[in-house]
Amino acid sequence: MKLVQFRRFGPPDVLETVEVPIPRPGRGEVLVRVHAAGVNFFEVLMRADRYAVSPPLPAFPGVEVAGIVEELGTDTDPSLIGARVAVPLFAIGRGFGGYAEYVAAEAAAAMRLPDGLSFADATALMVQGLTALHMVRRSPPKEKVVLVNAAAGGVGSLLLQLARFEGAGMVIAAAGSEAKRQSALSLGADLAVDYTAAEWAGAVRARTGGQGADVIYETVGGEIARASVAALAPAGEMLFAAMGRFSLELSAIRSMLDINQSLKGFSLLPLIAADRWRADLGILFDLAASGALKIVHGGRFSLDEAARAHRALEERRVSGKVVLVP
């Protein structure tokens, strides 16, 4: 079967497709023929050695797949054969190997998909869906003005919808192109601003009576995070989820403290409980299958085009979820 790996850190072209034996499912495991493998921005950073942690080399990216169970190991529920399933590898402590034609994993990690939910949609709801769900739980938006950065991205597009479901008083979307801002508005944002423009935070304050956003969901980091502070209301909070890209100066943090603002960190993995992730995915899957939660797709690529997929994400040329389709 085909498997994507990289043997050194660097640009997208370090990704290569290799031929390896199809894995055999062991006791209590299933073999899944992958129909969609998620591509995440943290994998782009990891490939370039710009993430919070560096993987050992060679590295085999991919932490989420969806497909059909084709083979069972011993002591495995026979009804799983032929089932359409999602496998969030990251939720079971396995952060590798998803960019492949086949994946063997514990049967307990294979979650059946509801009718009407595509493999690509299911893939979009694992890392990014659970991230968005836990972010609104960490900083509840009910009756508040919320600002969603990178609002047309995989996480942002889900975040703004979940914030609306949870009763946000106003949802402001920030994105870098007109097409992305229009996408965010179509998903329910009340206002969309260009966060590449100078003094864009002033537009947020102007639309909120000079106050700013009560909650900012920040997933970009760098200059966007620094500029976002000016859009935060007194006593507001910024939930920062851009691991490895924190760059707020001490002076900015002190200024926040002076007006009772707070900065909260966010990392998904510590929040995933072994007895809860299935229920949480079930919530997301049902919302998407019913049409209540819209999935934005940013492109489909073959395994041999993994470098193209990474480049599209790295250059921020796409909105929504990028998937590999073996």
Architecture overview:
With 326 residues, this protein is an alpha/beta fold. It is built from 10 helices and 15 strands. The strands form 3 sheets. Strands 3, 4, 5, 6, 7, 14 and 15 form a 7-stranded mixed beta sheet that branches. Strand 8 (145-149), helix 4 (154-165) and strand 9 form a beta-alpha-beta unit. The model has no long low-confidence stretch (mean pLDDT 93).
Task: Compose a concise summary of this entry.
Helix content is 28%, strand content 25%. With 326 residues, it is of the alpha/beta class. The strands form 3 sheets. Strands 3, 4, 5, 6, 7, 14 and 15 form a 7-stranded mixed sheet that branches. Strands 10-9-8-11-12-13 form a 6-stranded parallel sheet, sandwiched between helices. A two-stranded antiparallel sheet has the order 1-2.
Q: Topology of this structure?
A:
Elements: E1 2-5, E2 16-19, E3 29-39, H1 41-47, E4 64-72, E5 84-88, E6 102-106, E7 111-112, H2 119-124, H3 127-138, E8 145-149, H4 154-165, E9 170-175, H5 178-186, E10 191-194, H6 200-207, E11 213-218, H7 222-228, E12 232-240, H8 250-258, E13 262-265, H9 277-289, E14 297-301, H10 306-314, E15 321-324
Parallel strand pairs: 8-9, 8-11, 9-10, 11-12, 12-13, 14-15
Antiparallel strand pairs: 1-2, 3-4, 3-6, 3-15, 4-5, 5-7
